[in-house]
Amino acid sequence: MSLLSIVVKNLWRRPMRTVLTLAGIAIGISAVIALTTLAWGFEATWVNIYKARGADLVVTRITSRDPLPAPFPATAVADMARLKGVRGAAGVLSDLMSIEDAPTMLVAGWQPNTFIWDHLTLKQGRWLKDDLEKTVLLGEIAAELLHKSAGDRVQIDTEDFLVGGVFSSHALAENGAVLLPLGRLQVLTGRVGMVSFVNLSLDADATPDAIAALRRTIEGGPGRFKVFDANEIGQANIAVQAGKAMSLATSLIAVAIGAVGVMNTVLMSVFERVHEIGILLALGWRRSRIIRMIMLESLLLSLAGGVLGAAVGAAVLQVLQRLPMVHGRLEMSVGVAPLGVALLVSLVLGVLGGVYPAWRGAHMQPTAALRYE
Question: C-alpha dihedral over 181, 170, 151, 106, to 10 degrees?
Fold first, then answer.
């Protein structure tokens, strides 16, 4: 009989206990996968927004680390557009607002006739004509959630707007957004002459040294700005960092709870097989083989729970993606990285849960084990 078959037989001697342990591990692993995917998806959402727009650099206030930074005077847009190496500059004002019966949506005001519009594809209707018209564009997911199409009316805050068109974007979050002319959103939110971001497009031949010098120029100016590239903007967002911290904390708690559960199951299995272990030692089994048998039992239990947890976590994410409050707002696909984290956590559970039972089983004295009642 192989070592693996002995291990499987041992686990199924008490099927209810094994199943409950698997369930406990699976719940922990599914939480790890779901929260890790959400945290990384939130960061990917922010990064993809600016990559889709073709923004090489994004400028915000250095004092703001909120998901939506505090606005600053829009005169900075023209000032930055004149800097050496800058091909285009576009001011953006963003806010989170509840629109009619839909959950909170990203509402953004964009400067007309700037490069950030180039990546959008018009699906219905027309583009915005001027900076103050009471017309909006809906991302295709936003249009679906609001049940609107070109020519309909939509109420934002206390004002009524015409839906000028429906667009699609390479960035998922923009597909769930509502776009207004910058000047109209400034009036609507009481932030006339203000923007919250400046998107900069640089010359195609800009060198890393030239980009670094441009960043120093902007950050060293009187506006107390902070400059990010597309990859850095997610890392600078406090909500992204909070999500990652929550994911890490959950992973650690899952490891601790899961390790205790695995240890309890394997240790009880060892106590129930004292006579068996004593006989194996008396027949000449090395203590190292006893350790391998018990550690394999622990690892097999935890990995099985990890696989089950990965399936449950992926199913939970599929359900979350269909909820109105999440749909069209986050990039949430279970990739290799979250599954790798789940596998790593499972292995850690197996090692931590099996160390003490393996040590206890391997250090039994054959004569004492055979007399054990």
Answer: -50
